[in-house]
Design a protein that fits this description.
434 Repressor (Amino-terminal Domain), 57% helix, Four Helix Bundle (Hemerythrin (Met), subunit A), alpha/beta, Rossmann fold, 9% strand, 8-stranded mixed sheet, 3 domains, flat
């Protein structure tokens, strides 16, 4: 996400950092580059003009003129203005009411039902809530079945009454949730191909009946500037509390995110950043601004790691590394943890300076990880604990069991030995693990 914009802005920033001082003349071309970058990213034209004018005014101010490093100060100004455009502070989800009622609304095809599943999964993991899905899309063929399939895969129950009245279904679901101890109710409502009177009247009636703490608009980030009209149309009738931008991982522009808050005053609460059911993240303006400017997002890496890492297991693994006792059994466990964190290339892009290190275009074939896993799983526990016993006959057996060649097995063992040697060198040198 934001890749096109990020690349253009990073190039502009490189130029400005080379200047000993910033003047009206030398900033002209930089501001033109920034303006074009924003327009190409599909940011609203009026916002682009307003944004660049503010940046220019501050960049030519007294503070920058007196600065020893005007280029660095310019980057700070650019970052601060991007944060302001994106909404200053993060807008958190309401989670404290019992039950918390959330109405999911949007056009057909925006990813509303899938996002309902992702949000239920997110709320359960992060806030330890007990969610309930409510099937109120009684018009779209298979909508109820889709929600039930999602619920089944996540072990989250679905309240449904078939093709009844959506208002009555929502009302009955709230009573059911209270009686059965569900404290986070997600109502999946019907969508249309376009905003129409019938859709809006139904949504307004559901909102009046159940009085949700959150009314979230699910919107496809790849819609471009049309998204603003959709948000405005829904907000005029429903008083939205926030929106969730889906398919942000497929949108290299990001113009909707930069235009949305300023034009509609509706905060972005979450973004869909992968197709997986854990592919939903809280939207934090300052982190988004830093990613746009190539500063990385270390906090998101930490959060993703913490969400899948067992602390005790991590400590034990680190101690084994320190003592040189890290074996293929530990390696397999680490591999499984890494897989839970999603595509590795997405994590690499969050590292500061990823573009300069060539990490933004790295493609890691998930099949390769699956091949490694198959090889290690085809070993006995004894072989994983002590790979030195792997002679020719054992490798032949592992090859047949994993469907991989003996050459691949040898390559993996060689790489594992190199990794262990590197760990030993780290431990013998200045880099030591913080354990006694």
């Amino acid at each position: 996400m934001f890749e096109t914009l990020s690349e253009r802005l990073e190039n502009a920033v490189k130029k400005i950092k080379g200047y000993g001082k910033i003047t009206e003349d030398n900033i002209k071309d930089i501001m033109r580059d920034i303006r074009l970058a924003l327009l190409e990213a599909d940011v609203n034209y009026k916002i682009v003009l307003e944004f660049t004018e503010k940046v220019k005014e501050k960049a030519l101010g007294e503070e920058v003129r007196k600065s020893l490093k005007p280029g660095d100060l310019f980057v700070k100004i650019l970052k601060d203005e991007l944060v302001s455009l994106l909404g200053d502070n993060a807008s958190s989800l309401v989670v404290n009411d019992n039950p918390t009622i959330v109405m999911m609304v949007g056009l057909q095809g925006s990813g509303k039902t899938t996002t309902t599943g992702k949000l239920g999964n997110f709320i359960r993991k992060k806030y330890k809530k007990n969610p309930l899905f409510v099937a109120c899309d009684v018009y779209r063929p298979a909508a109820i079945e889709q929600l039930k399939t999602l619920g089944s895969s996540l072990s989250i129950p679905v309240y449904e009454e078939g093709k009844g009245s959506p208002v009555e279904i929502a009302k009955n679901a709230i009573s059911y949730a209270k009686e059965n101890g569900y404290n986070y109710v997600l109502i999946d409502t019907a969508g249309r191909l376009q905003i129409d009177e019938n859709l809006m009247n139904e949504l307004v009636n559901i909102q009046k009946e159940v009085m949700p703490q959150e009314t979230l608009l699910i919107i496809d980030a790849m819609m471009g500037q049309d998204a603003i009209n959709v948000i405005t149309g829904f907000n005029e009738k429903l008083n939205l509390t926030g929106c969730i931008l889906t398919k942000m991982d497929g949108d290299t522009k990001g113009g909707v995110a930069l235009s949305l808050r300023h034009l509609t005053n509706v905060p972005i609460k979450m973004i869909g950043d992968s197709e997986k059911l854990d592919g939903l993240s809280e939207f934090v303006p300052v982190r988004a601004a830093e990613r746009i400017l190539g500063m990385g997002d270390i906090l998101s890496i930490i959060e993703k790691t913490e969400s899948v890492l067992d602390e005790e297991e991590a400590l034990n693994t680190a101690k084994k590394m320190q003592k040189g006792k890290f074996d293929l059994e530990d390696f397999l466990s680490t591999l499984k943890t890494i897989k839970k964190m999603g595509p590795l290339e997405n994590l690499l892009k969050l590292i500061p300076g990823a573009r300069n290190m060539g990490l933004n275009n790295v493609n890691i074939d998930p099949k390769q990880i699956a091949h490694i896993e198959a090889i290690v799983l085809s070993m006995t526990k004894e072989e994983r604990k002590d790979p030195s016993i792997l002679k020719a006959s054992r490798k032949q057996r592992i090859s047949k069991g994993s469907g991989r060649s003996v050459e691949e097995i040898n390559r993996l063992l060689k790489q594992f030995d190199q990794m262990k040697l590197m760990m030993k060198q780290m431990n013998n040198g200045n880099l030591k693990f913080p354990f006694k």
